[in-house]
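Researcher: We're reviewing a set of sequences before deciding which ones to prioritize for further study. For each one, I'd like a predicted 3D structure that I can look through quickly. This is Class I SAM-dependent methyltransferase. If possible, include the structure in token form so it fits the rest of the review sheet.
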Amino acid sequence: MSGRTREGYSGTGPGPITPDGCAVERWLRLPVGREPNIIERAVPAGASILELGCGVGRVTHALVERGFVVTAVDESPEMLEHVRGARTVCAAIEELELGEERFDVVLLASFLIHNGDPEVRAAMLRTCRRYVADGGAVLIQREGENWHTRVPREAKTGDGGLIRVAAATRISDELTEFRVEYEFPDAEWSHTFPSYRWSKDGFESALSGAGLPVERYLTLDRTWVLARPA
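Model: Here's the predicted structure for Class I SAM-dependent methyltransferase, in token form for your review sheet.
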């Protein structure tokens, strides 16, 4: 396991577990989804991208293949061991230090903006604002607006696996503890984590307050947003 553990986050199953409870071997089994297509349509060809929370490089590798220049950041060295074709930086997003570097695009995917700690959420947005170039874009992935209530739910993977959002326990009016289970023929993992329930207005207000007003939503379900530095 990586050095520290984030409060409220835990994971079980074979292989290394990251500070926020993610199992490295489980992420290696999950294919990339529609994320690269959404990103490619929204930003200039060949743009420099700062990918925050890259994990094992599921999205990273697809972006590199499409000609983007990616700096991939993750707090887990075990995750970064699997990233290829991109510069890697081992750091927590809220503590990232890259000097005066700026990027055409800053990417905060994987619903990381729903972190249970308000100080971490605010610091993540500060990191996005700090490293996006003037005229650049910040792309953020947020949860669907009914995800805290549509539980349980499950989906099958192409290799015989099953992903199940098994439980959602209300901690407060704005915070939910989720338990997600991953079942494969030869291994099982679980991931427990707190998730902040953003309203659309609250989300947009937080981004605006961080100097990143929302320009537009990139998907009909409003799970992907593009913001520009003010």
